[in-house]
Structures are given as C-alpha cells and as structure tokens.
Design brief:
Blueprint lengths: L1 H9 L1 H21 L9 E17 L5 E13 L8 E9 L13 E7 L6 E7 L2 H19 L1 H25 L4 H21 L3 H28 L16 H34 L5 H40 L4 H38 L7 H17 L1
Antiparallel strand pairs: 1-2, 1-4, 2-3, 4-5
C-alpha cells in the first residue's frame, strides 16, 4: 500500500489523467448501454430464451455439425413499438460460422413485420457499441498509464491517421487517382506519426526520410518484378466484387502494411545513432557503423517475425475453415495464401532495406559529431559503458 501511495505521489499528473479517462469511459459505457433512442433501427433486449436441439448434418469432410433453434422473448426498447414484447426465433450451428448464438440480456437489432396480424419480427444482428467502447477504454487507459504523455501523443497520431485514412478513401471513391492518393497517404502517415511522437528534431527528420526512401524503393522493386514476371491473379483476392483497380489496391495494402515496421526500424536506427554520437562525442565512423550493424541484427529478425505473425493472424481463421471444408494445401497456396506470402516478402524486403538506408541517412545527419581518431573514440565508448554499468 505504501508503494502505491508513493507511486501516486510521484506520478500525480499521470494518475489524474488516467482517472479522468476512466471516468469518461465509464460514463460512455453506461450511456452506450442505454442509447437506444439515437438509433433509427429497432432495438430489442432479450428477456428470456430457450435453446432446443434441431438436427445434425454432415459437412464436406464428413464432419458432423449440430444445429439448434433459439426461441426468445424480446422487449422493444425504441421506436413505435417501444415497451412491447415479441417472440423471435434464431437458428445457429455448433461452429457458428454463418450464424450467431444469443444470450439473455443481449441487445439486438431487429426488423418488425408490420403486415401480420400479430406483432412479429426477425433478427438483423447484435448491438455491439458497448463492447467497442469497453475495448477502446481498456486500450486508452492502459496506454496512458504506461506511457504517460507519450501515450496521449500516440492517441493523437492514431486519431489523425484514422481521420486521414477515411478522407483518402473518400477521395478514391469520388474518382481521384488512386496511386496519387496512396503516395499522399504514405507521406502523411510517416510525417504525422513521427513528428507528433518525437517532435521536430534531426533524428525524426532522418527517420521520415529513411521511411519514405525505403517505402518508395519497395514500390519500385515491386513494379520491376511485375514487369518481368507478369501480373498476379488479383481477381482471386477475397471480397473482390467488381472490376476495380485491383493491382493498385493490392499494392497499396502491401505498402501501408509494411509502413509501420519500416517506420519502427527507421526511428530505432536514427535514435540509436543520435544517442551514440551525443554520448560518445568522439565516436568514429567505423565504430558507429559497427554499432548500427549490431542494432540492425537485433531488430531485423524480430520485426520480420512481427510482420509474419500479423499476416498469419489475419488469414488464419479463413485458412483453417477452408482446410476443414475440403481445400487441399496446393490449392490453398495457389489461390489464397499466395497474396499473404507476397505481402510478407515485400514487407520483409522493406525491413531489411530500412536498416542500411536508415544508417546512411543517420550518418549524413550526424556526421559532424564523429571523430577521426579511433583510440579517442574507443575510450569515449568505454567511458559511456562504464557509466551506464555504475547506474
């Protein structure tokens, strides 16, 4: 208890900021539990329900799946029929692949059939706004509690990037050139994220330049490889419903997907060079390159794995469902995983390229602080290491 009191005393500003966010999200959560009147669609709360087994059917791989019928009594919470009770039916399977299972207390969007003599309706879907507010609240409070004012800066960059992303999508829908929008989007994300988080400094300017050079290098390499190998079968991508600009849409996804990893590598290398030059004033070019190489080795492997796990996580559920439903592995790689593999490989090339590019940019920005005397540099670095050990 004494430790908690000491922590609060030493971090009063952060504690009160977290407390304010907690109160705000608590109020929002309570409001989203009772905000039925802001919706035009009819909402009803499940008062009681009964689950009854219906049948068992075999799938494509002879896997048995059980089906159930839910009979539920719901109370309308808004609109013309507010306060009235309706009996609804819902069918769901044990896998719940194409349907949902509901429980008592759930808020449902429903469609009321006004033509029948007795009031009836059908379920449209679950009202999820309170769960979204809860998740956002946990995220924001945890971020501010751990990172303090830098957490608030991170939230600012997220909000700015989300607003910009929506704006850029609207530009594309209105008929603007998609590749121009993509270029502007990448520049905006890079500049805004790094400047808000780190301010206007040499290391951040270096990180922005490194990010943009690396990203546009990836773009050039991708275009060159397509020129020699031919186009991909973009029409096989998931959720494609019309003759859109498929190549540019896919390329945009690849570039934006790896942008975060490239930014992380760029700022890490530029920050490290900045710290080394400031800490060891007489560091030589040789020593600096050696340090950058070690840093690159440390971050390269982890960032590539982060990228791989991100793409695996995004497609894992679909891949498993397709395997269960009879897809063979060769067909899966050819028509589904191939796009994820390309995204991963292009992103990995970006991460690997970001290390030497960031190193070159950082060396250009911080070359004035370097020494030509190796012996003096070694002594300076040793002094820095000794002082850090004593701490």
């Amino acid at each position: 208890m004494e430790m908690i009191k000491r922590y609060i005393k030493n971090n009063k500003g952060r504690f009160f900021t977290v407390l304010i966010f907690f109160i705000v999200f608590l109020v929002l959560f309570i409001w989203t539990n009772n905000n039925y009147n802001i919706y035009k669609s009819t909402i009803a709360k499940v008062i009681s329900l009964e689950n009854v087994y219906d049948k068992t059917e075999k799938g494509t791989n002879d896997i048995e799946e059980k089906y159930y019928i839910q009979t539920m009594v719901v109370k309308v919470k808004n609109g013309q029929y507010k306060g009235q009770q309706i009996t609804l039916k819902n069918s769901y399977s044990s896998s719940m692949l194409m349907n949902e299972k509901y429980k008592k207390g759930d808020d449902l969007f429903i469609s009321i059939n006004e033509n029948s003599s007795e009031l009836s309706g059908s379920i449209i879907g679950l009202k999820r706004d309170k769960f979204i507010v809860l998740l956002i609240g946990f995220f924001v409070i945890a971020l501010v509690a751990v990172a303090g004012r830098f957490g608030i800066f991170t939230l600012c960059t997220l909000i700015a990037n989300i607003v910009a992303f929506i704006y850029f999508i609207k530009l594309y829908v209105s008929g603007k050139d998609f590749m121009l929008i993509n270029v502007l989007m990448i520049i905006f994300f890079s500049v805004v994220t790094l400047l808000i988080l780190g301010g206007f400094s040499r290391k951040n300017i270096g990180a922005i330049l490194s990010t943009l050079i690396t990203t546009f290098l990836i773009f050039a390499l991708y275009k060159i490889s397509l020129a020699y190998t031919g186009d991909l079968h973009y029409e096989l991508m998931d959720y494609i419903a019309g003759p859109n600009d498929l190549e540019n849409i896919f390329l945009s996804g690849v570039l934006v997907g790896c942008l975060g990893a490239v930014m992380d590598v760029s700022i890490t290398v530029n920050s490290a060079v900045n710290e080394l030059v400031n800490a060891a004033k007489s560091i030589t070019l040789k020593q600096l390159i050696k340090s950058i190489r070690e840093i690159g080795h440390d971050i390269m492997g982890t960032m590539i794995n982060v990228l791989m796990f991100s793409y695996i996580g995004g497609s894992l559920s679909i891949v498993i469902l397709k395997i269960i439903n009879g897809y063979n592995f060769q067909r899966l790689i050819q028509f589904d995983i191939s796009f994820e593999i390309i995204r991963f490989l292009v992103g990995s090339i970006g991460i690997v390229s970001a290390v030497p590019i960031s190193a070159c940019v950082a060396l250009l920005f911080f070359r004035k602080g370097m020494s030509k005397n190796d012996s003096v540099a070694n002594n300076s670095i040793a002094d820095v290491n000794d002082s850090s050990r004593r701490r």
